[in-house]
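A reminder from the course coordinator: this example appears on the midterm review sheet, so study it carefully.

Given structure:
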């Protein structure tokens, strides 16, 4: 596993996400410039083959509006606690993939071409919880986006070597 925090091949660090809170609902947001074509980024964020390289196993994945989704995080020792189900709540191939799952709420990936062979990925996560969970999610998504950059560069995560060290470092940076 690479512990890089640079966008794949871009030499740019993954920028910190931002958040907005209303009551106990948090909206987290990132814009990631990726030096890969939309088709490659789409395959990573919207297919059961691409998701395990940076995010989670897609044990159930029906690629259509209303389709079922079950994501299982691969960095947890308790598979039952790491498995979260929901539905595809927006689907426009090569443009928008949105999953709403029980733990993480609404997770929206919006892809736009950003020049030849480049993609702007706009990610939004709307979730409910306390401020500590908000910061945990900011750090967690940040780390997963580092993994996404590595996976797109041909270096998917080796989940067997995962440790919480990088997450803890990122979590401190979101305090």
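Designed residues:
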């Amino acid at each position: 596993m690479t512990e890089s925090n640079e966008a794949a091949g871009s030499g740019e660090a993954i920028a910190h996400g931002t958040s907005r809170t209303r009551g106990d609902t948090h909206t987290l947001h990132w814009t990631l410039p990726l030096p890969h074509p939309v088709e490659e980024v789409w395959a990573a964020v919207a297919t059961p083959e691409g998701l395990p390289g940076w995010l989670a196993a897609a044990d159930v994945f029906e690629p259509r509006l209303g389709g079922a989704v079950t994501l299982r995080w691969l960095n947890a020792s308790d598979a039952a606690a790491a498995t979260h189900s929901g539905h595809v709540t927006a689907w426009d191939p090569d443009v928008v993939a949105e999953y709403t799952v029980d733990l993480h709420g609404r997770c929206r990936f919006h892809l736009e071409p950003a020049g030849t062979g480049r993609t702007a990925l706009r990610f939004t996560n709307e979730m409910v919880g306390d401020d500590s969970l908000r910061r945990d999610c900011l750090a967690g998504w940040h780390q997963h986006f580092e993994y996404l950059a590595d996976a797109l560069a041909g270096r998917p995560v080796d989940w067997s070597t995962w440790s919480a060290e990088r997450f803890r470092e990122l979590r401190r940076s979101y305090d």
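The longest helix spans residues 131-152. Residues 139 and 167 are 6 Å apart (CA to CA).
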